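Dear Dr. H.,

I hope your travels went smoothly. While you were away I took the liberty of generating a structure for the chain from your last submission, since the lab meeting agenda had it listed for discussion. I wanted you to have the full record in hand beforehand rather than looking at slides cold. The sequence, exactly as received, is reproduced here:
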Amino acid sequence: MVVEENLDEPIGDLIRRARRAAGLSQQLLAEKLNRLAGHGTVTGHEVGRWENHQRIPRPFWRQWLSAGLGIPVDQLNRAAVVAAFQRAAAGSRLSIDTHSGHESEPGQLPLAQTLGEVLTMWDQMIGRRQLLARAGPTAGAALIAASIPGALGSARGETRPETYALHAALTERYRQLDVIAGPHAVYSQALDHHRQLMSWLASTRSASEIRHLAELAADSGDLMAWLHFDLEEYATAIACYREAADAASRVDDLSLHAYLVGRISRTLSECRQHSKALDMSRTAEHIAGTSAQPAVRSWLAVTRAFVHACLGQQAECRASLDKAAELLALAAGSAEPAPGCISFYEQGHLRKWTGHSLLALAAADARFASQGRSAIDDALRDWPATAVRESAEVITASAQARIIEREIEEAARLTARAYAVAAATGSARNLRAVTELRVQLRPFRGTPAVRDLDERILTGS
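The corresponding predicted structure, in token form, is as follows:
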């Protein structure tokens, strides 16, 4: 059976169309998928949730949907990106009137990309992947042999700079699509690409290639670590960050090396291992010294401030926040461009972490609550339109501040917004944060706003 491709079709519609063409009910499709996968965890109800756009099937089930319905995996993956983008665009409502404390007129987040632009990104990514795949099953010796004259290799068997540029661009496309559509939209493809780079790095003996490949592997390893982090697979995330940091150190990339060690600290703090996180943060600061790019040093300082706050160290937290602001101002006035690993970091992120830190201090001293709320609301007002998934983290923090100040109705509305973004982008980490907010809102379940929040989450709307 051949399923004609509709380039703008979300995955739910694609599954429904292919299932009906095959003459299968939702229950029969579920049974077929379970037989193919070798275990029975999908139900007809779950298939219905896929088709009704309540859930996006994960990469594991997309491969069996491909086998069971005769749809190419790339077509399913592209349709998953369409669905994720549509959900994110519908669910990311960020506008808040921070002066009145009330919700402003509803309006969707003005995403920097339209669906057409996102799908163009996807098609470019697939094109680059197919181009690289023509050089061989792995990116090792076969790439050096290069079957595409002038693009992937030279007559002397040397890898051309264009090859490295293609790999770097592919990682960047994965990163951009993850920010918009979430980790499940790119995970399997990004993992395959990272493994190819690591295989190539392990097999080469060329000093020149080792340098190029270590840079590429550090970048793709950073992305893979982040994907695992967002899926709350923290041990794997730390392992990926260590591997990427080792690759960065091989090529003496001081800024990237320090940043990746800082990401390990960030992961430990997410696991509430704050003392270990502080030790790792100090290691990152030592690596960075005064030579690492100022934006990297600013990010290290502001995330360290949060760790100090979680440990109740007010003076150290304040000092780190001041240092972070000073270094970001220095970075803004520098002619040296920020490295790719820190390109996301700007004033909004500085304010976000300032707010996180002050709200953490507020757990012991309520005087910090209003300052934390102000910083978070400033971050939310200026939050970059492209950072869809991470907007849930900022909205969650804003809701947390309002719970502290007993503005329960507004806290419930913000929690509903955070849930919409987290569910749309498949972020397990942000969904857990929403769950923690709901626990804090339990004493107020009698209020209309909290009842409405619970109904939204229970119905998946």
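Two observations you may find useful: Confidence is low (pLDDT under 50) at residues 92-112, 135-156. The chain has 21 helices and two strands.

With kind regards,
E. W.
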